[in-house]
């Protein structure tokens, strides 16, 4: 499970990161509004831990953006603001939970597990487009109800596009999102081309009515022919 911590208090951010990494989570961080929006635009996450009061903007505006662009992404508000108005506003905008500072890290972990469990139970972690269904929890791809075998990176690539229908995605942004923050150190993108070629072939052979189309000079876009 991949988490994004949006928190400007460095000591708290570090403590949360260390604790959650020990529990097996993949954790990334943003310390202000601009960095948070940049991360959300370029990477895929399963859950966001969101402070309301951020340098450069409001966490509630980030929450509104998340729910408009990717309603399936879970968000837990973590804020020193404990007024009822902030809590109600956050929940109205679609936050999955609200945790007021100070809090015990054990409680934070429990809230993350609870949110993930609720998502699995109500089927929120399934991405659909045309006759294609991608089940996040079981890591299965179904085309017309028939399972199609994918490698892990092929699955991650398809999930990235299904979370951004109609968006044109730069190949470098895709590489960073699927392979990690430091992929810019690679000499070329041959590994991206190879995985993409295999994924597109499998979709076509399975009779999928969606296609990941090459956009010359830029990257790729998920379309329905």
Give a short synopsis of this structure:
The protein has helices at residues 10-22, 33-42, 59-69, 84-92, 105-121, 152-162, 171-179, 190-205, and strands at residues 2-6, 26-30, 47-50, 53-54, 57-58, 74-79, 97-100, 126-129, 132-135, 140-143, 146-148, 168-170, 211-215, 219-223. It is α/β, with parallel strands linked by helices. It is elongated.
Protein architecture, described:
The chain has 225 residues and is an alpha/beta fold. It has 8 helices and 14 strands. It has a 5-stranded parallel beta sheet with strand order 2-1-3-6-7, with helices on both faces. Strands 8-9-10-11 form a 4-stranded antiparallel beta sheet, with helices on one face. The longest helix has 17 residues, at 105-121. The two termini are 32 Å apart.
């Amino acid at each position: 499970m991949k988490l994004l911590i949006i928190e400007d208090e460095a000591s708290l951010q570090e403590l949360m990161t260390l604790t959650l990494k020990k529990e097996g989570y993949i954790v990334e961080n943003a310390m202000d509004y601009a960095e948070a929006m940049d991360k959300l635009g370029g990477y895929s996450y399963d859950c966001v831990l969101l402070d309301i009061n951020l340098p450069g903007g409001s966490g509630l505006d980030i929450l509104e953006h998340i729910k408009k662009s990717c309603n399936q992404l879970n968000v837990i508000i973590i804020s020193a603001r404990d007024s009822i108005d902030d809590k109600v506003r956050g929940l109205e905008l679609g936050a999955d939970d609200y945790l007021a500072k100070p809090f015990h890290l054990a409680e934070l972990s429990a809230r993350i597990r609870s949110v993930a469990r609720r998502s699995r139970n109500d089927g929120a972690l399934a991405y659909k487009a045309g006759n294609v269904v991608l089940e996040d929890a079981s890591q299965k791809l179904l085309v017309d109800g028939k399972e199609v075998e994918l490698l892990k990176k092929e699955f991650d690539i398809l999930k990235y596009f299904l979370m951004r229908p109609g968006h044109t995605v730069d190949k470098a942004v895709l590489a960073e999102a699927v392979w990690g923050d430091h992929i810019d150190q690679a000499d070329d993108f041959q590994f991206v081309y190879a995985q993409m070629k295999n994924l597109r072939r499998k979709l076509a052979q399975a009779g999928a009515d969606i296609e990941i189309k090459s956009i010359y000079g830029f990257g790729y876009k998920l379309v329905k022919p």
